C-alpha cells in the first residue's frame, strides 16, 4: 500500500502524492533552504522561506512566487477523518493546585496576558519550590489565592478567560 500525503496549497488546492512521486522528483539541493527542481523539462528555483514542523506548514517560494503549503501524512489524515483537530489549541480554563502547599509568590495579576510556559506562581510543597507555568497563552480572568495562603490539592488557583 502506498502511503499518501495530503498536500494543501494556499488553502485552495488539495492533492495527494506518495513516496514514489517524491522519489521521482528531480531536484538538486543548492543550500539548506534552496533547491533547483526540474519538472516536465521546466526548471524551477525553489526556496523554503518559513517552516513550522510542528504544524507541518511551510512557505515555499517558486520562481519568486510564495506558496503556503500544509502537509498531512497518513496518521494526520486518519486523525482528521476521525473528527479530531490536528494542532488544536489547548482549552485549559483553570489551574488547580497539583499538591497541598504554600503560595510563595504570584507573578501575574487579573487581566495579565500570558504566553505558554510563563511562570504564574510559586508553590512550596514538601520544602521544595515549584513554579507553576501557564499551559497556554491567554488572559488571567481571576486569581483565587494570595501570597502566603496554604492550599489543598486540586484547589482552584487561577482561571483563564
TrEMBL record:
Residues 92-161 form the Lipoyl-binding domain. The keyword rRNA-binding does not apply. Keywords: Biotin. SUPFAM superfamilies: Single hybrid motif. The keyword Ribonucleoprotein does not apply. InterPro entries: Biotin_BS (IPR001882), Biotin_Carboxyl_Carrier/Decarb (IPR050709), Biotin_lipoyl (IPR000089), Single_hybrid_motif (IPR011053). PANTHER family: OXALOACETATE DECARBOXYLASE ALPHA CHAIN. This is Acetyl-CoA carboxylase biotin carboxyl carrier protein subunit. It comes from Polaribacter atrinae.
